[in-house]
């Protein structure tokens, strides 16, 4: 079984420069978890490139099972970047799929 964890965020900053800086910091922080959090099988994160009504930033990450996802979410480095994310996000959606 594989669990695919998908999260999208709308960023709070309205200034394009601040929004781009926040997106880059979130992307870098989450991307840096690869190799640090052993439960991550694969992780892709990045800012939207189309704009319009799209959400600003997305994460797609694969885990072996629900327990692996839970350990990822509780990992101190994930918690640390999550604290920053909450300061720059106005909305969040998530879905976890079984592949």
TrEMBL record:
It comes from the Bacteria. It comes from Cryobacterium psychrophilum. InterPro entries: Dabb (IPR013097), Dimeric_a/b-barrel (IPR011008). Pfam families: Dabb. This is Dabb family protein.
